[in-house]
C-alpha cells in the first residue's frame, strides 16, 4: 500500500523487483487433522489475479457432509459407491477395493490435492506391506485397484470436483492375462507329485468325457453338461428359466443372470450386450435337460403343497434359485471325489471353446456361442490348442516341408522322383510312332531312311 495515498501500489509497487516472489496471489486453507494428529494446510500460489485465486479456493471449499468444508477422497468414494448401478459383482468388487485399500490410504486426503506422485507412493506402500506380511499382491490385483480408483475419479471429474484424473496417468507393472493350459499327461503327473497347478487350465476331450460320465447321476449334472458343451457363465446357468428353453426346437435364450450381492440373490441383465444371445442345443444336451425336468417334477410331487415353483431350470431341492457359488462348490467336490485334475467352474467355459475349435467349429461361431463382443477376446483368451490338434498341425507342416525335400515323412529315405510330364509326353509320342510303323509297314516303303 502507498503510505501517502493508502491505496494499493499495483504494478507500481517498488518491491516488485526481479527475482522476488511478489505481485501474485496465493491461497491457504486449513485441512482436517491428519491421522498423526498434526495440522495440515493447502497452500497454492502463482495466481496472477485475485479472481483466479478465489475460484481455486472455492473449488477446495466444495460443501461436504463432514462439515469441514472440504471433499476428501474418502467422502467422495463413499458417495460414489452409494450411487453405483450395474452388475452386483462389479459393485461388490468396487466396494472391496475401497474398504480394503483406498479408504485407509486416501481417506483424509483432499480430493483436489490428489496427485500422481502421491498415488505412486501409495501403491508402492501397499505392495511393500503385503510382501512383509507374506501376502504379495499380483500386478493384476494392483491394476484392478487402480481401475476402481480411476473410475471413481472420472465421476468426480465429470462433476467438476477435480480438473484432472491422476489415476489415469500413473504407471503400474503390466499385468499379463493368464493363458489357459491343457492338462496333458505329463502335467497331471507333475501336479500329482508336487501339487502345483496352473492358474487357468482346461481338460482334454477324454477328461471332459470322464467327468460327465462320472457325474451322470448327480442332481446338477445337466448344469455342468450345459456349461461344458455350450460355454455358459455360471451366473447365466443359474439364471436360466424354463420359459427361456425350447427343447423341441433345441434352443435356449440367455436373457439374464443370477448374482449374489450382500448375501442376497438377484436377477441381473447379462454381463454385456453381446452376452444376451440365443444358443443352439445338441441332442445330448436336450436329453440331459429333459431328464432334469423330470427330476424336478418328481421332487415337486414328493414335496406336495409346500413346493414353490420358481420357474428356474437349476434350483435347490426346495426350488429356490441356485447361487452361482453353490454351483462352484459342488463342482469342486465332484472333481475331488473322482480324482480329476483341478479346474475352476469358469474354466469349463474355456473347455467349451477349445473343444468346439478342436471339433472344427469356426471361430466366429464360437464367439457367438460364448457371447463375446470381440473375436479377438475369443481367440486370445478362451481358446487353447489341444495336444492332438497341435500334433496334427505339426505333422501337416512337416509333411509339406519333407515333400519339397523329397524325404518320406518319419524316415530318412529319399522319395523316388516321378518322371516329369515332359518326359512322359516325349515317351508317349515315340511309342505311338513305333506302333504306327509296325502296324502300317507299307507306309515306310519309298521313304528315305536316315542312318
Keywords:
451 residues, 16 helices, 9 strands, 9% strand, elongated
What does this structure look like?
This protein is mainly alpha-helical and 451 residues long. The protein is 47% helix and 9% strand. The protein has 16 helices and nine strands. The protein has helices at residues 50-60, 73-82, 88-106, 116-132, 139-158, 185-194, 205-214, 221-230, 234-238, 283-303, 324-338, 347-358, 363-370, 375-380, 387-405, 421-439; strands at residues 25-31, 40-47, 181-182, 201-202, 245-246, 251-254, 257-261, 264-268, 277-280. The strands form four sheets. It has a three-stranded antiparallel sheet with strand order 5-6-9, with no helix packed on it. Strands 1-2 form a two-stranded antiparallel ribbon. A hairpin with a 4-residue loop joins strand 5 (245-246) and strand 6. The longest helix has 21 residues, at 283-303. The radius of gyration is 37 Å and the shape is elongated. It starts with 24 loop residues before the first strand and ends in a 12-residue tail after the last helix.
What about the largest sheet? Answer: 3 strands, antiparallel
**Residues in β-strands, percent:** 5-15%
Radius of gyration: 37 Å
- Secondary-structure element order, N to C: EEHHHHHEHEHHHEEEEEHHHHHHH
Helix content: 40-55%
Tell me the distance between the termini.
132 Å
Mean pLDDT: 81
Structure class: mainly alpha
The spatial strand order of the largest sheet comes to 5-6-9
Helical stretch count?
16
Q: Which residue ranges are poorly predicted, with pLDDT under 50 across at least 5 consecutive positions?
A: 63-69, 430-446
Q: What spatial form do the alpha-carbon principal axes imply?
A: elongated
Number of strands: 9
Amino acid at each position: 500500500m502507498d503510505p501517502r495515498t493508502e491505496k494499493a501500489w499495483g504494478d507500481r509497487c517498488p518491491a516488485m523487483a526481479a527475482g522476488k516472489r511478489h505481485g501474485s496471489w496465493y491461497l491457504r486453507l486449513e485441512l482436517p487433522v491428519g491421522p498423526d494428529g498434526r495440522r495440515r494446510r493447502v497452500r497454492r500460489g502463482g495466481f496472477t489475479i485475485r479472481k483466479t485465486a478465489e475460484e481455486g479456493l472455492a473449488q477446495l471449499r466444495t460443501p461436504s457432509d463432514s462439515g469441514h468444508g472440504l471433499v476428501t477422497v474418502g467422502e467422495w468414494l463413499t458417495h460414489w459407491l452409494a450411487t453405483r448401478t450395474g452388475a452386483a459383482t462389479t459393485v461388490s468388487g468396487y466396494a472391496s477395493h475401497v474398504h480394503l485399500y483406498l479408504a485407509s490410504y486416501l481417506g483424509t486426503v483432499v480430493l483436489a490435492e490428489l496427485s500422481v506422485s502421491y498415488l505412486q507412493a501409495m501403491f508402492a506402500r501397499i505392495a511393500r506391506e503385503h510382501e512383509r506380511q507374506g501376502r504379495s499382491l499380483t500386478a493384476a490385483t494392483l491394476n484392478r485397484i487402480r481401475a476402481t480408483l480411476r473410475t471413481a475419479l472420472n465421476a468426480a471429474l465429470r462433476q467438476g470436483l477435480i480438473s484432472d484424473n491422476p489415476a489415469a496417468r500413473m504407471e503400474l507393472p503390466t499385468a499379463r492375462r493368464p493363458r489357459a493350459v491343457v492338462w496333458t499327461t505329463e502335467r497331471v503327473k507333475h501336479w500329482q507329485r508336487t501339487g502345483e497347478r496352473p492358474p487357468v487350465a482346461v481338460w482334454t476331450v477324454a477328461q471332459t468325457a470322464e467327468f460327465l460320465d462320472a457325474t451322470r447321476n448327480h442332481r446338477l449334472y445337466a448344469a455342468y453338461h450345459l456349461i461344458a458343451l455350450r460355454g455358459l457363465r455360471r451366473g447365466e446357468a443359474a439364471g436360466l428359466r424354463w420359459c427361456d428353453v425350447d427343447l423341441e426346437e433345441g434352443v435356449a435364450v440367455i436373457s439374464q443372470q443370477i448374482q449374489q450381492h450382500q448375501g442376497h440373490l438377484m436377477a441381473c441383465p447379462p454381463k454385456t450386450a453381446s452376452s444376451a444371445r440365443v444358443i443352439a442345443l445338441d441332442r445330448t444336451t436336450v436329453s440331459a435337460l429333459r431328464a432334469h425336468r423330470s427330476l424336478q417334477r418328481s421332487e415337486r410331487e414328493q414335496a406336495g403343497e409346500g413346493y414353490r415353483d420358481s420357474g428356474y431350470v437349476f434350483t435347490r431341492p426346495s426350488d429356490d434359485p441356485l447361487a452361482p457359488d453353490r454351483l462352484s462348490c459342488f463342482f469342486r467336490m465332484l472333481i475331488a471325489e473322482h480324482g480329476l485334475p483341478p479346474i475352476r467352474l469358469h474354466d469349463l467355459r474355456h473347455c467349451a471353446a477349445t473343444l468346439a475349435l478342436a471339433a472344427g467349429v469356426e471361430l466366429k461361431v464360437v464367439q457367438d456361442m460364448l457371447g463375446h463382443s470381440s473375436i479377438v477376446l475369443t481367440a486370445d483368451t478362451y481358446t487353447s490348442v489341444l495336444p492332438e490338434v497341435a500334433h496334427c498341425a505339426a505333422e501337416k507342416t512337416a509333411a509339406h516341408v519333407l515333400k519339397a525335400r523329397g524325404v518320406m515323412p518319419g524316415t530318412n529315405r529319399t522319395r523316388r522322383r516321378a518322371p516329369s510330364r515332359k518326359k512322359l509326353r516325349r515317351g508317349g509320342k515315340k511309342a505311338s510312332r513305333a506302333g504306327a510303323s509296325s502296324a502300317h509297314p507299307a507306309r515306310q516303303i519309298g521313304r528315305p531312311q536316315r542312318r
